[in-house]
Amino acid sequence: MEALLLLILLSVTELSRAQNTTVFQGMAGRSLRVFCPYNSLKHWGRRKAWCRQLGEEGLCQQVVSTHPSWLLSFLKRWNGSTAITDDALGGTLTITLRNLQAHDAGLYQCQSLHGSEADTLRKVLVEVLADPLDYQDPGDLWIPEESENFEGTQVEHSISRAERHMTEEDPHWRRGLGKVCTDHPSLYTHSLGH
């Protein structure tokens, strides 16, 4: 009985840690965009940062931050394969992880900085999915046999993958220019505990 109670307690603790964490999934080798909406009046004039959380409750190590002058925060700043840009008027911080790799998976935070303090705008869990086509055996691909009806016709075989997804936090989504595609695991985001 005690073991069952301990298991339930651990499950509840794990769920409470996951609360308010948004999961973003991306395919290895592709780019992933993370959107962190915030109250632009409350965080006006503050620098923003993207940091990687070390451990469950540990320190958050800064990966990249916006321009030191908040007036130039709209300029994209890079640190390696990670970029950050801030739409201060629209209240959206955008993080781009280019050429996503397995080591990029983990818990991150979007932060608003003021002095030595930092407010967490959003906790983000980045998951990196292996591209199933990277492991595709060419012998498994279906290639139609030659047919008399198509004699002399050149056929090119191609495989298409979606490059971009949009979420409700995406400025283009708000303008009605995008759709969310939920039929592919790498093209969605979902929130835990909202």
TrEMBL record:
Signal peptide range in chain numbering: 1-18
Keywords: Cell membrane, Disulfide bond, Glycoprotein, Immunoglobulin domain, Lipid-binding, Membrane, Receptor, Secreted, Signal, Transmembrane, Transmembrane helix
Major location (coarse): membrane
Keyword Lyase: no
GO molecular function: carbohydrate derivative binding; lipid binding; transmembrane signaling receptor activity
Annotated Pfam families: V-set (PF07686)
Compartment annotation: Cell membrane; Secreted
Bilayer topology term: Single-pass type I membrane protein
Alphabetical list of InterPro entries matching this protein: Ig-like_dom_sf (IPR036179), Ig-like_fold (IPR013783), Ig_V-set (IPR013106), Immune_rcpt_domain (IPR052314)
Domain Immunoglobulin V-set stretches: 22-128
One example of a Gene Ontology biological process annotation: cellular response to amyloid-beta
GO annotations of cellular component type: cell surface; extracellular region; plasma membrane
Subunit structure comment from the entry: Monomer. After ectodomain shedding, the extracellular domain oligomerizes, which is enhanced and stabilized by binding of phosphatidylserine. Interacts with TYROBP/DAP12. Interaction with TYROBP is required for stabilization of the TREM2 C-terminal fragment (TREM2-CTF) which is produced by proteolytic processing. Interacts with PLXNA1 (via TIG domains); the interaction mediates SEMA6D binding and signaling through TYROBP.
Identification of the protein by name: Triggering receptor expressed on myeloid cells 2
Annotated source species: Camelus ferus
Lineage: Eukaryota, Metazoa, Chordata, Craniata, Vertebrata
